């Protein structure tokens, strides 16, 4: 976590330097305060201010974007008596960092998010802790609201949990509750009246082979069709895997950017030594030097995970998907 500390008084600087020693990060100089805050707001994960909260609010107000994008913002008085989680408590990690700093300093953590004060599971914080992408963030407020009103919420997950579920979560597979949360990499169709939060694990590895010079638009359309065909969520694609021969292919690079998924290059020798029974192609071997590309790359880049599709052919393109083994969900 990239943390940046700001201060305005000598006592505040001393406290900022103490937190730097305890938690890491960078202490900014007092000069060019507003410009430093603006830069940190774009680049850092957390901004910690040792000063009056009013100064902080006025400084960051023009920089606010959304709860999905804003960094964590914390405020401390210069005595370090209170550590206040001011912004992005859950998704930005401000609440967790507030607890950490307060524990290390022996301070009072001040957390005002409703689910925390009520002792109810916060699903945005849960998503962050488990590296789950929230597909439909606007639904989150309905789920949190239902829990705060004492309602039961459906909870379904394709990944095992390592914690006892609280009594306000109903795991019945056939539940018809109006509010729910689903953890899955599968595509899910929901009636418009049902408020279901979709949390996507980064579990899918997409293996890609293609002809040289294929258009990025065509490859993206093939990938979208492929995922739709097998009922897999694009939000769960964690990596695009291919061979070294395709490492600079513009269409493959564009697909990696479109899915915000890193490009993984699988060495030819790993494919050649792999004992998994891929659907081999002599033509592919002649062109690339390996017996298979899409299926082999998805399998090996997933850590020899669960094979979901095998090789699927499209005009000038082959695709395959495997599922990585995911750790249990935790609080």
Annotate the secondary structure layout.
Layout: E1 3-7, H1 10-23, E2 26-27, H2 33-43, E3 46-50, H3 53-60, E4 72-76, E5 82-87, H4 94-105, E6 108-110, H5 114-118, H6 123-129, E7 132-134, H7 140-148, E8 153-157, E9 169-170, E10 179-183, E11 195-201, E12 204-210, H8 216-229, E13 237-243, H9 250-258, E14 263-266, H10 268-273, H11 282-288, H12 294-301, E15 306-307, E16 312-314, E17 317-323
Parallel strand pairs: 1-2, 1-3, 3-4, 5-6, 8-9, 8-10, 10-11, 12-13, 13-14
Antiparallel strand pairs: 4-5, 7-11, 12-17, 15-17, 16-17
What does this structure look like?
The chain is α/β, with parallel strands linked by helices. It folds into three domains: 3-112, Rossmann fold, CATH 3.40.50.11220; 123-201, Udp-n-acetylmuramoylalanyl-d-glutamate--2,6- Diaminopimelate Ligase, Chain: A, domain 1; 204-323, CobE/GbiG C-terminal domain (Nucleotidyltransferase, domain 5). It has helices at 10-23, 33-43, 53-60, 94-105, 114-118, 123-129, 140-148, 216-229, 250-258, 268-273, 282-288, 294-301, and strands at 3-7, 26-27, 46-50, 72-76, 82-87, 108-110, 132-134, 153-157, 169-170, 179-183, 195-201, 204-210, 237-243, 263-266, 306-307, 312-314, 317-323. Strand 1 (3-7), helix 1 and strand 2 (26-27) form a beta-alpha-beta unit. Helix 8 (216-229) crosses helix 9. It is globular, with a radius of gyration of 24 Å. The mean pLDDT is 95.
Structural class category = alpha/beta
List low-confidence stretches: none
Principal-axes geometry comes out as: globular
Major beta sheet, specifics? 6 strands, mixed
Euclidean distance between termini CA atoms: 19 Å
The number of helical runs is 12
The percent range for helix content is 25-40%
Side by side, the strands of the main sheet go 2-1-3-4-5-6
Going by CATH, the homologous superfamily of the largest domain would be CobE/GbiG C-terminal domain
Using the CA coordinates, give the radius of gyration.
24 Å
H and E order: EHEHEHEEHEHHEHEEEEEHEHEHHHEEE
Quaternary class: single chain
> In CATH, what is the class of the largest domain?
Alpha Beta
CATH topology of the largest domain: Nucleotidyltransferase, domain 5
Range of strand content:
15-25%
The second-level CATH architecture of the largest domain is 2-Layer Sandwich
By DSSP, the count of extended strands is 17
Q: What is the arithmetic mean of pLDDT? A: 95
Number of domains: 3
